[in-house]
What does this fold into?
Amino acid sequence: MATKRRVQQVHAWLTKISAGMEGDLVGLKRLVDNTGLKRRLQGSGLSTAEVYWAWAASRPERLQRMERGSRFLEVPDWRRQALGQLSVWEGRTAEAPSRVWEQERLQQRVLRALASVAGLEEGEDLLLEPGDARLAWHRVKGLFKGAGGYREFHQVIAVLMLRGKLEGPVDLEMGDWWEEVWAAEGRSGTGRQEVALDTAFHRIVVDFGAGTQCARALLGPGAIYVPLDTVRWVYSRKAGMMVENLVMDLSVGSAEDMWARIRELVLARLGVDLGGQPSSLVILWMSPPCKTFSRADSSNRIRGCGYRDHRHRSGMRPPLREGGKLTEKGRLAAAHDKMVQLWLEVAWEWQTKGVRWALENPVGSLVRRPYMRAMDGYIRQVDYCAYGRDDMKPTNIWTSVSGWNPVGTTGTGKCLGKGRCLAMQGSRHKRSVTGGRKAKAVGQGAQASKSEVPEMLLLEWARAEKEWNGVWHGVE
Ligand SMILES: [Zn+2]
It folds into this structure.
């Protein structure tokens, strides 16, 4: 993978440049000030965050628990340790079979706990949401006895990530550490975007609910990516590392206020002024949180812990109530309803300024919500197996790009069904979203992310509007 190679390169540079440096904040500052490294960074397209990650990963022992002021600077060394554990697991180093088996069992237990709190079936790929890891910890902490248990738990999560079983935020205390690094750096933003851009001819991709940043595929050369989320650092399977989002509350405000806040944030973090209003150069990609709209929620309902009332006679999947009052999870579902409505308002308003938008959600409860009725003229349905994936994952996409008709590899963007769908073996897809216990991710496809929107789909959508593409650089 190209990213991996780049990071290896940076490792090599770091080792050379940082020889003799102390592994503390002073050392980091000197590293940051190194003009040779800066030059190389610009040429490599790497972000500063990636370099720090490389730095942290290669020198965890020295950086760990170094003083930060009178407090402590804690650097997570889980990635290195996790890689070590991974190689053990993969049998690259000699290890007693019983130990390997023990590790595997531990990983399965953690995976089950995570799947359970995330409201997913086992075998379905896991995209964690904020707080999931912490909740899962309470279910499995008995397995991690003694001091350092919580850390060990995170290492297991890291191994699962590196094995392609898991992605998302993990409640690591990384945030604090990065903040320190940014502060030490005296400026902020990612290297990739720290260029003075004339926004007049550059595409701006605004990503609501960026998560693992799959909408990055929409970027052409020189485009500005604005990944907005409530979580800053998220592990992306595709990138094989943590990706950084711009943190913003997307559940409040108005269309106008939202743009003003984005402009402010982007100016502060990326040093780019997006202008006083959105324009026809802006793409808005929206991925609402899936959890409370998920189909798997109905099986949770039976266990009495669902988000929505799947048996409500309206068929509209309202947030779950008990005795007339919203349950705790019902409240989250109601909050997500409110947020999606706000996003749609923003999309409508921005559309009058020329913005193209799309909102994606796996087929589930969202399409049944009453507020989506007004969007009926904008809906498409695709199957991800028609876009090169091993799972079907039927997905709704609402979009203002009227010229887009789903094609994919099948001509319709839909699964061809038994005997004809390339992603099927016998009567089922190689991977399954709702297939439950037997549908384990196996083989090559196991590394591919299932929570991500397929790149082919994103590009097909982006290319649909010819007039728009004429303005862009970088879209064929
Ligand atoms: Zn199919």
